Amino acid sequence: MKRVDFLEIEGKSGGFFLLLGALGALLIAALGSAYFMEHNGHVVTGMNNQIVWGIPHVFAVFLIVAASGAINVASVSSVFKKPAYKPLAPLSGLLAMGLLAGGLAVLVLDLGRPDRLIVAMTHYNFKSIFAWNIFLYTGFMAVVFVYLWMMMERRFNKYSRPAGITAFIWRLMLTTGTGSIFGFLVARQAYDAAIMAPMFIIMSLAFGTAIYILVLMAAYKWTGRELGQFVLSKLRSLLGIFIAAVFLIVATYHLTNLYVAENAGVESFILFDGNVYTYMFWLGQILIGTALPLALIFSPQLKTSNNALVYASIFTIVGGLAQLYVIIIGGQAFPMDIFPGYEVTSSFFDGQIGMYNPSIPEIMLGVGGIAIAGLIVTIGVKLLKFLPANLSDNAVDPHHKG
Amino acid sequence: MSKSEENTTDIQRRKVLVAGAAAAGVTLVPGVMMIEVAQAKPDAESASRSVRWGMLIDSNKCKSGCDDCVSACGKENGWAKDKTPMSQKPQWMRKVNLKHKATGKEASLPMMCQHCEKPPCVDVCPTGASFKRTDGIVLVDKHTCIGCRYCMMACPYKARSFVHEVIEDHDSYMPRGMGTVESCTMCVHRVDKGELPACVESCKEKAILFGDLNDPNSDIAKRLKEYPSRQIRADLRLNTGVSYEGI
Amino acid sequence: MKQNAVKKHSRLYPCFTSALFTTLLLAAFFVSPSIAGVPMPEVPKAIKGESCVEDTAFMRRNHMEVLLHQRDKTMREGVRTKKHSLTGCLNCHAVKDVDGSFVTIKSEKHFCNSCHTYAAVKIDCFTCHTSVPQQTVGLRNQ
Fold first, then answer.
1. Whether residue C63 sits in one domain with residue C1
2. Is residue B40 a part of any domain in this protein?
3. Between vectors from CA A231 to CA A230 and to CA A236, what angle results, nearest 5°?
4. Are B93 and B184 in contact (CB under 8 A)?
5. Does B44 map to a domain?
């Protein structure tokens, strides 16, 4: 195994400060939106009593799920003992922490009473998966922090495997907990399914790996460091497998719902009705999020094309956001079947498809979560040795000649 | 008899008559009342463990255009005067008009928090703000509610509302504020005083019956035993405190 | 020998300076109101009753505990005793405006604000609760 040197990025170029500035501006916009929402109430958002969770939750859940998937690259090295991934591990930890911080920030700032965060941290109803998630999310930060420390301080390297195993198990529990937020709800046809937990686990692997690839490629391109095909081909294969696995579970979920008469209504609504969710699903999730990336990754002509990998990762992310939009918002928009067999009307929009028009403050808040993640990673790689100085095939491929 | 003796006798007679009338009144009154009245709970006492408050709604008596119960609830609890747009305005209670797709049979009924025995909203609340009182009434403790709206996702009856705007005119007996979730409280502030919920009292058709489900002699328990009724979404096994006839 | 002496002194200096600094700070804190002449809060007199349900010193220190405890008893257990109820407080501790109506929490003259603005402690009660005596701003048709 060739020795890999880690080095902070220089971080003095105009481009670096431009990036920091742009992310900072997005963060300020997000904080301003959060203040606006908190001061005036949620009346200024598109969320209402029919669609209670909107764009902020789509972004928050995406970031949290991606965080648990981003640590996977490090897990492959420690838990599954693949030394080729070892140089990639520190960035994986940093990215995981950044994404989780971003997701949690959006979630907390969207609360009706964000000033009551202390109440949330001191009063627990342990039957609620939300209460467990508070521990799982904050615990994840601590576990990844320790894992990074074991990885990055040479004399503790012998503990990086136990730390990695802990992080691996913890993140599986975290993603199960996130999926179960929806899986435990009996009220709606789109939820109330145990498959939500494993579906979120496999989604996390796809989203996390896609984001990791983009961050890695951007970091190396923008700092002029070398990044070879040895590393990229491994990540490429991982991404492809995960996207295919997501498709398998998503197909199982939808086919099961279609089979069962009780849930055929929501399936028809999402898959065939021609509303925004139908387009999000077929165009966003399936075409852009699954078919295109798989084609770009597994096509023999594009095996070494970096551009193809970049597009595949971007499409996976777009598809992931679309998937969460369909799950979270589509699941709420379908009218709750309180009186099966009846046509229902009321002043509270019973029997009607929930209307949701995302407002600017909500979108800004969601994007702010991405900005937080970006700032943490950008500043982190400058302050500490998260990135190997050289990831060219010469440097990391044990079989490379020359 | 001397005059003083007569006066004493008169006074004694008066006392006996008054006592007798009072005794008769107390014995007769419960039988005369057509509507079940809750016993006022003493202030210092906690909500009872042996009581389970419930409602029985006869939808046969509900007319499609009538929403007296909903208006009464809105006036009593203060949500009627909110100026928030309809899609974001809290509605603790609503009249639902039904038409069976296959048979065309029409019905109308009021829908509100069903006060389940196993409330999903209580299960999912991260802070425990959504809770069930020992007498079966499901409430939101606004002191601890963080406004996450998970209970709104979880409720199978869409009973909960989120307060989207600042509340200016508060009622002293029903505090409510922006950023928290609320729903029908079964007029707990009235029930504790021995009064009926506003919706029950306001219905001209007497379609809503309120009482103690655990008391086999209460009107509601006797009616549930005698006439067919059902809980909405009974297959979810939540054992709701509210039941309906005629649907 | 000389080095040891210097070492002893160098350990003393930080201790001494920090002790002096702390003393000066504390002195400034305790002495300042009388020096600077900062006004004490003007707490308006209650409009009803001879005395509060608890004595003033107790209330000043513990009214928050009383409120926190009572709200849980009322909300969770349904105990509606009048003694420590918020409504009870407001019914006596009401302040009338020049036009005869009760001031709400929005006004500086409100009983709770008279201390809380001074102490710069934000209170959350009146996001949900009414800040004027019962049935003054009631909209129930009786």
1. no
2. no
3. 100
4. yes
5. no
C-alpha span between A392 and B200 (Å, rounded): 77
- Whole-angstrom Cα distance, residue C65 to residue B58? 46
Give the total number of structural domains in chain C: 2
Residues B17 and B112 in one domain: no
What's the one-letter identity of residue A350?
D
Sequence-separated contacts (24+) of C63-71 with Cβ below 8 Å: C67/C125, C71/B143
Q: Which amino acid is at A222?
A: W
**Chain A neighbours, 3+ Cβ pairs < 8 A:** B
Does the structure show a pLDDT above 50 at A312? yes
In a domain, A6, yes or no: no
| Whether C14 and C69 share a structural domain | no
What span, in angstroms and rounded, lies between the C-alpha atoms of A197 and A175? Answer: 7
Full DSSP string of C54-103? S-HHHHHHHHHHHHHHHHHIIIII----STT-HHHHHHHS--B-TTSSBP
* Closest Cβ opposite residue A123 in set B102, B128, B148: B128
Q: Do B170 and C78 touch (CB under 8 A)?
A: no
pLDDT (tens digit, 9 = 90+) per residue, B18-69? Answer: 656 655 555 544 444 444 455 678 888 888 889 999 999 999 999 999 999 9
Would you call A54 helix, strand, or coil by DSSP? Answer: coil
The pLDDT value given to residue C3: 52
Contact between B76 and B198 (Cβ < 8 Å): yes
Q: Give the span between the Cα atoms of C77 and C71, in whole angstroms.
A: 10
Residue of C123, C130, C132, C134 to mutate when probing chain B, most B C-beta within 10 A: C130
Question: What's the domain range around B115?
Answer: 53-245
The SS3 of residue B162 is strand
Confidence of residue A16 (pLDDT cuts 50, 70, 90): very high
Contact A55, A354 (CB under 8 A): no
For residues C115 and C73, state if they share a domain.
yes
From start to end of A174-236, where are the E strands?
Answer: none
For residue A165, the model assigns a pLDDT of 96
Measuring CA to CA, which residue among B174, B171, B169, B219 is closest to residue B192? B174
Tell me how many degrees the CA angle B199-B204-B208 measures, rounded to the nearest 5. Answer: 45
B146 close to C (CB below 8 A) = no
Determine the Cα–Cα distance for residues A182 and A199; give it in Å rounded to an integer.
Answer: 11
Q: Does B164 touch chain A (CB under 8 A)?
A: yes
* Among candidates A111, A117, A346 on the partner chain, residue whose Cβ is nearest the Cβ of B95: A346
**Chain center to CA of C69:** 16
Q: Looking up tokens 């005596």, which residue turns up? A: C133
Question: Mind listing the pLDDT tens digit for each residue in B169-200?
Answer: 888 889 999 999 999 999 999 999 999 999 99
- The answer as to whether B64 is a domain residue is yes
- Residue C139: per-residue pLDDT: 37
In this structure, the answer to whether residues B115 and B27 fall within a common structural domain is no
Counting the structural domains of chain B, the total is 2
Binding-face residues of C in 109-128 toward B, CB within 8 A: 126-128
Place of tokens 């939101």: B140
Q: Please answer whether residues A90 and A152 qualify as being in contact, where contact means their C-beta atoms are separated by less than 8 angstroms.
A: yes
How many CB atoms are located within 10 Å of the residue B117 CB?
A: 16
What is the domain extent for residue A148?
14-396
Residue C40 DSSP label? P
Domain that holds residue C102: 56-127
Domain count, chain A: 1
Task: Out of A128, A184, A349, name the one closest to residue B125 (CB).
Answer: A128
User: What would the DSSP string read from start to end of B217-240?
Assistant: TSHHHHHHHHS--B-TTGGG----
B125: chain A residues, CB-CB within 8 Å: 125, 128, 130
Does the residue A133 lie in any domain? yes
Distance, in Å, from the CA atom of B8 to the CA atom of B10, rounded to the nearest integer, reads: 5
Two structure tokens written together for B231: 């809980």
Residues 73-92 of B with CB under 8 A from C: 75-76, 78, 81
